[in-house]
Design brief:
CATH topology: Alpha-Beta Plaits
Helix content: 25-40%
Distance between the termini: 9 Å
Shape: globular
Number of domains: 1
Radius of gyration: 13 Å
Number of strands: 3
Structural class: alpha+beta
Number of helices: 3
Length: 88
């Protein structure tokens, strides 16, 4: 089982980010094979760098193969992100 944390920095255009997140990412997330749950947190306390993340999303329940398959999907590849898989 994979536990994936996605850390979002403060977007330059909050309205556009929220629209993209709610209209594109959330529906895609709900279709992920093996996903048991996902949560979204806002108003996160500052990190050690002194900066607060805008939002943190947590996805739980996929296998590593399902997770890799999701991020290799053409729709996922069109979105720039830095993904780092930690050893399980």
């Amino acid at each position: 089982m994979v536990r994936l944390l996605v850390l979002y920095n403060q977007p330059s255009d909050v309205r556009a980010f929220e629209k993209q997140f709610n209209e594109v990412l959330v529906p895609l997330t709900k279709k992920m094979a093996g996903l048991r749950s996902y949560t979204v947190s806002r108003n996160i306390a500052p990190s050690l760098r002194g900066e607060a993340y805008y939002m943190v999303a947590e996805w739980i329940g996929m296998t590593r193969q399902q997770c890799n398959g999701h991020f290799n999907h053409p729709k996922a590849k069109r979105r720039p992100c830095r993904l780092r898989m930690l050893p399980s």
